[in-house]
Every structure is written in C-alpha cells, then in structure tokens.
C-alpha cells in the first residue's frame, strides 16, 4: 500500500486583476475581477514507504503547492490526497505527527535557545516518550557531529550548523515522512556532503520516506533513487533516476586530443563527431549501442591519442534541454 497517494489532484488559485489608474483602484474596492491560475493539473502520484524521491522542476512548476497539500496547509480544488491513510487538510494534527519539514531558507529553531533546550522544547510539543527522545537525540548528535555547538544559542551558529540542527529537530519525533526543501542551499562542499550522508543514513536506519525538492542536481544524484519531474502543474516524468538518464540523455561524451594535425578516424557509425577545435575533438555515443570501453578502444586503435576524457550524462544538462 502506498504511503502517499495523489489521484487526479488539481489546485487553482484566484488572483485579483490589477488595473492601473486611480479610478480603477477605487472600483476594485467594490467589484473585483479575477484571473484563475491552475497550479496543479490532475496530478497522479504514488509513493511507497522508505522511498527517496527527488521532486524537481523550475520555479512556479507546482512543487511548493504539492508539498503544502501534503502537509495539510492547502485544500485541493479537485481530486484526492492521502498521506499514511489520512486526508491531510481534514486531519491536520494527526498528519503533523507523521511528517517532518525542513526549509533551507526558513529555520524552525528559536534563536535565543541553545540546541539542548530546543530539543527539550520539541520533546514536550510532540509528547515524545523519554526513551525514544534520548535515543534519537544521541543518534542525531553523533550522526550530525553536533557536540561542539549544543550549548551555543542558535543565533551564533553558522549556516551549516543551523541546517544540521533543523534536520535533527524535524526528525526528533520519528516521522514517517520528511519533506526537504533546498536543504543544502548556501552550504559549502563539506557541509553539503555531511547533510547528504545524513539523509541517506536516516533513510537506511529508520526507513524514513524522503521527498526532496531542490535545484541542486548533485543533491538529487547523491540522495535519490527516483525522480518526479513537474512543469506547469503537470508531471513530465516519474521513475528511476538511472532510467531517466537512459531515456533522455543524448549520450556519453568523449573528449580526445590527437597528436599533431592528423585527421580523426571514427571507424564506427555509432561514434558521432559533435564538435572539433584543432586537435581537440568531441565525440558522442550512446552506451546502449556501444559500451564505453569499446568506444575508447576503437578511438585509440585508429588514432594517436594524447589525452582522453569521458563525461557521463549530466542530469542538470538533461533537464535544461527538457525545459527548453
């Protein structure tokens, strides 16, 4: 049985028409005209317990609207939404106990409290059992390396430390699902790596279902095994990340530099010259037609190669092309 189930889910908003001029402004106080914006268009989505799902799309695609519907903040215009067998907007309190939410640009921490006191505050809010509370606090402190700033007020923490603290608080009550919105935004390379490892470890140890929305495709590649691509309120793709690359990628790219001014010999129609600039050649091939090892062997057998670089399909480049 699916943990999250969306069926023919649509959401529209009424937006007031703004007209220029003083008298038009006065008239609008009495009688207003509206435009209808359809944020979601008959979305069908099913997510099983324990999945790591990347929910991606450009700004205004409908990602935030979907998360707000799942959290019970919004009600659908039509269709149905269920989370853990509940209707979120009808059973908000029960739904809130099963979810955790982290927004990369909005902290849920109390700035003047140290993390020790913040943990205790959330224990009381969620009525967490003492044994569960102690086990989770110890687990997250160790996994997120939080020992050094536990007694420091939140306002004195770095951006990376605040994000680690937000993650720990969101997961303190053992939610079945956690919604992560840009959890690594603005972080340095080391902090990003720590956050990504933590999310994978929590999923592995506790079976927590993760819905990740982000514009950082490295987050998607390193965390998720499934992606849902949405644009203009409709789902364009829903499936495995590996299958997405296989289906939409133009192929692997081989960049080779030849010795001297010798002409390039491809020797196989499965290898396509994409671009050349002097001795440097860009060659495209699809691995489902010719393995990378065979492509390299053919090139080096028929050409004197000084330098060779293999570039695998990049998910960010693929998505850019889809948007275009």
TrEMBL record:
Any one GO MF annotation of this record: ATP binding
Keyword terms, alphabetized: ATP-binding, Nucleotide-binding, Transport
Domain ABC transporter intervals: 4-257
Pfam families, per the entry: ABC_tran (PF00005)
Annotated signal sequence range: none
Matching SUPFAM superfamilies: P-loop containing nucleoside triphosphate hydrolases
The name this protein goes by in its record: ATP-binding cassette domain-containing protein
Species name: Paenibacillus aurantius
């Amino acid at each position: 049985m699916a943990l999250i189930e969306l069926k023919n889910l649509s959401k529209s908003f009424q937006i007031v028409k703004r007209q220029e001029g003083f008298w038009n402004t006065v008239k609008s106080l009495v009688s207003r005209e509206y435009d209808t914006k359809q944020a979601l268009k008959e979305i069908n989505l099913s997510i099983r317990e324990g999945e790591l799902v990347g929910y991606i799309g450009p700004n205004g695609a409908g990602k935030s609207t979907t998360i707000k519907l799942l959290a019970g903040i919004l009600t659908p215009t039509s269709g149905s939404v269920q989370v853990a067998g509940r209707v979120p907007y009808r059973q908000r309190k029960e739904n809130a106990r099963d979810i955790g939410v982290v927004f990369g640009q909005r902290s849920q921490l109390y700035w003047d409290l140290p993390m020790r006191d913040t943990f205790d505050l959330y224990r009381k809010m969620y009525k967490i059992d003492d044994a569960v509370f102690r086990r989770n606090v110890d687990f997250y402190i160790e996994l997120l390396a939080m020992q050094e700033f536990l007694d420091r007020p939140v306002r004195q923490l770095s951006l990376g430390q605040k994000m680690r603290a937000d993650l720990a608080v969101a997961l303190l009550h053992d939610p079945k699902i956690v919604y992560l919105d840009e959890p690594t935004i603005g972080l340095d390379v080391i902090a990003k790596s720590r956050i990504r490892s933590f999310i994978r470890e929590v999923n592995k140890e506790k079976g927590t279902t993760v819905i990740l929305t982000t514009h950082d495709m490295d987050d998607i590649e390193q965390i998720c095994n499934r992606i849902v691509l949405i644009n203009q309120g409709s789902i364009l793709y829903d499936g495995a990340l590996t299958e997405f690359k296989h289906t939409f990628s133009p192929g692997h790219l081989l960049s080779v530099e030849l010795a001297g001014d010798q002409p390039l010999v491809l020797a196989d129609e499965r290898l396509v010259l994409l671009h050349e600039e002097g001795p440097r050649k860009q060659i495209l091939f699809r691995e489902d037609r010719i393995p990378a090892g065979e492509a390299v062997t053919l090139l080096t057998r028929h050409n004197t190669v000084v330098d060779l670089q293999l570039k695998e399909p990049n998910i960010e480049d693929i998505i850019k092309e889809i948007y275009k």
